[in-house]
Amino acid sequence: MEKKSVSVTLEHVTKRFKNVKGKADVIAVNDSDFVIEPGELVTLLGPSGCGKTTTLRMIAGFELPTEGRILIGDQDVTMLPPNKRDTATMFQSYGLFPHMTVFDNVAYGLKLRKVPKEEIKTRVEEMLELLGLKDMGDRAPSKLSGGQQQRVALARSLIVAPSVLLLDEPLSNLDALLREQMRVEIKKVQRALGITAVYVTHDRTEAMSLSDRVVVMKDGVIRQIGSPSEIYEAPESRFVAGFVGKAAFFNTEVKGHDGIHYQCALGNKMVDVTHAAKDVTTGEAVIMARPESLRILGKGEGKIDGRVKLNVYLGASIESFVDTPFGEVLVEIDDPYAKKIYKEGEEVSIDFAPDRVRLLPKDEY
């Protein structure tokens, strides 16, 4: 199959929906402006109603922007219908034709394009083999497992060799194990074909494991764009920090800084923090700490005193929930067999390395 790698560009795209009851218009997407590079897999991540699916539908052509432009490669597709754009969309529901075999489901798009029969046979067989469906072409979709049906739906989207593959929460109907397996399959196939892909989900694990970059959205606005590691380790707001992973937040006051070191008051102790969001200066702020960046020590030995409320055994790690003056704090203890585990009810203190936490604006959600 011919590989196509093109960019997708959104230039100040806004989508307003008219309110039929005479109230203010609903702004579903507000001034989205970013570029998806050729061959990149970018995930639109956010809670329900944040505008991620509307953004995907505008790229596909199912919705038209109120303002702005959308380009696929160098072509302005803003006002083109879906069938005039070189895209393929994989939806949450499989949408397979029950009266057709797996082979015919996958071949359907090629038949509509009047591709010669021999070429159809060759391309479908190659695609089925690529997705681990080599010996299933003669089966009915009803005879397949959920994961296999999802692979058929993916094969049907990819077989037409679109320039851009759009995936709208395609794994939400699968159980946890199948979701994990299909995440790997989608990433492998996307990388093998070098295709540009846009993936919509509210599942942070999917976003972090699949993506080259993540676009985090809230209330129609892009809150941050970055690689999974950048989004996780260097969030610019409390909303992004909390949405992409577990985190503890400690209110603090920044007494001073030199651009590298921030002197922070944490209760009756001073803490030196070395990483901060761009909007943090002096005054009130929040220290964000991931569970794996914290550790539990004996009473009085750390920065924040507390009492162990609950220990949850997870095999490779233990999650300890500690009551503190700042609220309940989750501490992740890896390799528990090699660490001291404090019992539930014990008085303890929590410590963290200054370079493992991050300062965020206090009122930024």
TrEMBL record:
The keyword Cell inner membrane applies. Keywords: ATP-binding, Cell inner membrane, Cell membrane, Membrane, Nucleotide-binding, Translocase, Transport. The keyword rRNA-binding does not apply. SMART domains: AAA (SM00382). GO terms for molecular function: ABC-type transporter activity; ATP binding; ATP hydrolysis activity. InterPro entries: AAA+_ATPase, ABC_SmlMolc_Importer, ABC_transporter-like_ATP-bd, ABC_transporter-like_CS, Mo/tungstate-bd_C_term_dom, P-loop_NTPase, Transp-assoc_OB_typ2. One of its GO terms (cellular component) is ATP-binding cassette (ABC) transporter complex. PROSITE patterns: ABC_TRANSPORTER_1, ABC_TRANSPORTER_2. Residues 8-244 form the ABC transporter domain. Coiled coil: none annotated. This is ABC transporter ATP-binding protein.
